[in-house]
Write a structure and sequence with these properties.
By secondary structure, this protein is mainly β. The protein has one domain: Pnp Oxidase, Chain A (Roll), CATH 2.30.110.10. The protein contains three helices and twelve strands, in the order αβββββαβαββββββ.
């Protein structure tokens, strides 16, 4: 049985995920990309993982050991997600130290990471970062499933 890339994408598109923007400061400015393949890996040490396509501009930054951040987007930040995915424009406001990786103002949460490991994974690389700083606020996360942003509906 042969699995087409389209069937694979359609099946896994049913998995709802949060939306993050991965960012670095490359010395010339802040750079970001949208990523939904992001997860926590370990509490001790605190590790997170992001999957980045090898053709993405961000890939080279992470492969060369850049410190990076992940901003977990709030439900009202869909325009930022689209902007960093290359679909449209949005006003971008960064926070953080000039010398370190920035995070997005208004994000629901953020983590700052030092490179920990990188693992080849087909047309992507799995970058594991050790979290060295984090912040959060109350709010509702941005959720993505089946090619669309979704609202969370509380269970009774």
């Amino acid at each position: 049985m042969s699995l087409s890339p389209q069937d694979f994408k359609q099946a896994l598109g049913r998995f709802a995920s949060g939306v993050t923007v991965i960012a670095v400061n490359d010395g010339e400015g802040q750079r970001g990309m949208t990523a939904s393949a992001f997860l926590s890996v370990s509490l001790d040490p605190p590790l997170v993982l992001v999957s980045v396509g090898k053709k993405a501009h961000m890939h080279a930054h992470l492969l060369h050991g850049a410190r990076w951040s992940a901003s977990i987007l709030a439900h009202d930040q869909a325009a930022l997600s689209g902007h960093f995915a290359g679909y449209g424009e949005a006003e971008v406001r960064w926070e953080g130290e000039q010398s370190g990786p920035p995070h997005l103002a208004g994000a629901l949460a953020w983590v700052e990471c030092m490179p920990f490991a990188a693992h080849d994974a087909g047309d992507h690389t799995l970058f594991v970062g050790q979290v060295v700083a984090a912040g959060h606020r109350e709010g509702i996360p941005l959720v993505y499933s089946q090619g669309k942003y979704r609202d969370l509906v509380p269970l009774p």
